[in-house]
Amino acid sequence: MDSLTLYIPPSAKDSFERIIEVDGQKLGFSSSEPYFRGNGKLLVNIAPIKDGYVLTCHLTIPVELDCSRCLEPVNISVDESFRFVLSRVLLGEEAEGEWALFSTNEYEFDLAPLVRELILVSHPSKPLCRFDCRGLCTECGRNLNRGPCRCKVETIDPRWRALAALAETSGASTKDKEIERDGGSKTTNVQE
Fold first, then answer.
1. Tell me: the pLDDT tens digits for 16-62?
2. Helical H segments across 26-148, by residue range
3. Contacts for 93 with CB less than 8 Å, ≥ 6 apart
């Protein structure tokens, strides 16, 4: 039996609970998706209904993602509850918003696809290592959270250079500002 296969005995007439160990490495994620820092737990409450079961689940599993700004590891914990219906018949409107899972075996249900999907939708799409993450320098790639870099970046947008050149030829003065990324000090060169 697989690690996320739920076995419901044929004699089950009342609600009961199961705790299933979740090994994140066996859920079929690629290397670019979440890295699991350990095993999690899936608490499942099974309630028999006509033609199936209602499963109320609570999943907790530690996950490591990459910060979307600086690519440093971000540790989060997926801690989500969800509910779905195991059934062999089509669900009516009263089951709206619940998931239906159809089984080929009468007493075993593979929960891995549902757990995998829940993990994917429950973690942030743009995780941050901290709220004020400064990210990476666009010139040299240095992590700006670890300190400033020495890159000089022009503040004028290259798409506006033609307009600045036009202003220079017409006799107007322009300011060409550069920002030196060494703790936020600014140097300004004025051309007339």
1. 888 888 887 777 776 666 777 778 898 999 888 877 788 899 999 88
2. 112-122
3. none
Question: Is the pTM value of this prediction over 0.90?
Answer: no
Chain center to CA of 49: 34
- Cα–Cα distance between 83 and 44 in angstroms, integer? 9
Q: Do residues 61 and 149 touch, judged by C-beta distance below 8 A?
A: no
Q: Are strands 186-191 and 174-180 parallel, antiparallel or unpaired?
A: antiparallel
Count other Cβ atoms within 10 Å, centred on residue 192.
8
Q: Are residues 107 and 17 in the same domain?
A: yes
Question: What total of structural domains would you count in the chain?
Answer: 2
Domain region containing 14? 5-122
Contact present, 99 and 84 (Cβ < 8 Å) = yes
Q: Are residues 35 and 95 in the same domain?
A: yes
